[in-house]
Known about the structure:
32% of the residues lie in helices and 32% in strands. The chain has five helices and 20 strands. Strands 2-11-15-13-12-16 form a six-stranded antiparallel barrel.
Amino acid sequence: MRLNRFLKLCCLLLIPLAALTVGAxxxxxxxxxxxxxxxxxxxxxxxxxxxxxxxxxxxxxxxVDVGAQVAGRIVSFGKDASGKNVDYGSVVQEGMVLARxxxxxxxxxxxxxxxxxxxxxxxxxxxxxDLRQLQAKLYQTERDWKRAVKLGPxxxxxxxxxxAAQSAFEMARANVEVGKATIAQAKESVGQxxxxxxxxxxxxxxxxxxxxxxxxxxxxxxxxxQTVVAxxxxxxxxxxxxxxxxxxxxxxxxxxxIGSIRVGQQVTFTVDAYPGRAFKGEVGKIRLNASLTQNVVxxxxxxxxxNSDGKLLPYLTANAKFLVHQRQNVLMVPxxxxxxxxxxxxxxxxxxxxxxxxxxxxADDGPDGKSAGGVVWGLHGSFVKPFKVAIGPTDGSMTEIQxxxxxxxxxxxxxxxxxxxxxxxxxxxxxxxxxxKGGGGGH
Length: 443
């Protein structure tokens, strides 16, 4: 009985002792583990893709704005390829009727000008008849004048009759010229009437709006019964995209990034309509007319993309990435490793002549994306030591480096641990631990 009590007492004493031993071991291990005051990350080896991100809008490659050149009321729409009234998304062919404008006034103008043309043609016939009369009169006066010349002023022909014959002949000859001019004037009047008729007929034809190209109706901007007024600017009735199998993405690129954009550059982009799909394209044109918005200068870059499957729709918002550099199987470090520089007392005594100026991982001084160089810091006991590196392109978080002294897996310093982290690390293992999951209280 006493032996059982003794064994129970020993067990009760051993359990707290074991807990103390485990806690002490954990405390010592954490002390040893968190002895370093630096945050580090390993050097990685792999593929790196450097891109420029921007946003834009999907646009048809070529759009035709169909307007009206005459004023009037829309009375009907034409039929599309499927026999339905022309509407949004209708497929149309060149010459197909899109809409008709009330042509009553223009038909009246055509009838009026036709009548004027007939009157002008009648004037030509009358002028020609008058000319023949004048020519006959000229022929008569010319014979009278020739007889008067033969007789001359004498007892048979007085001076007055002689002068009258001469005057009649001259007048008849002048009247013939007047008759010829009248015919020319009448013919010009016919030409003027024909031009007026052509104008009136053209205005009448303008009442029928036809498609100038093959394409798809992107926008219909009028309704039946609506009156369009053509004055200085032709009112827009339809917007037709010539070919939706090839689209453009108009992307606004910041002036800081435009130097890395070139014609033919590969581009990938996504649209919210298809969140799981990436579309491909290439830079077709860099527009030179920059825009200034809130003191930010941007350039419009046209990206050409294939839309044979018809998935992309005009005017979708696109989030694009321009492929600037692509590196394979290279060494990479976090950008913070290139920006951090230690205090003099943190540098190993053998390397304290190196001050360790931070490098800019976004520097790009050459066509291959490499800058003059930089420095990363590795651990050396409780100190750090510098490693000179050649800096390559960056993807925004990782940067390519080249150095004969650095290998994959080597730890590089990103910065110092905060005092809060050190206090939490050195806290007693026996202190109560509070869960941070869920909604915590404010500080």
